[in-house]
Target: CW-type domain-containing protein
Amino acid sequence: MPNLSLQLSLRREDKKTSIGNWIQCQEVLDTGAICGKWRRAPLFVVQSSDWDCSCSVLWDPIRADCAVPQFLHHSVIIKSTI
Ligand SMILES: [Zn+2]
Model:
């Protein structure tokens, strides 16, 4: 069934384009330091001064917690987007 594989690849493309931003967590931790982890977010979600990891629960519940390490190091992100 060739149509099935086509549908699957299209669905994979949709997911790739719907998540396109990187936003840095601004949550102040118990230690007094800012969390500062970078999280993937859909393009319509923009950086704000009170954005924190838990905000990504809608599209990335696995990483929607300051205790979860970020997906990529910041320097790697800059290299891959510029
Ligand atoms: Zn955080």
Q: What stands out?
A: Residues 2-18 form the longest helix (17 residues).
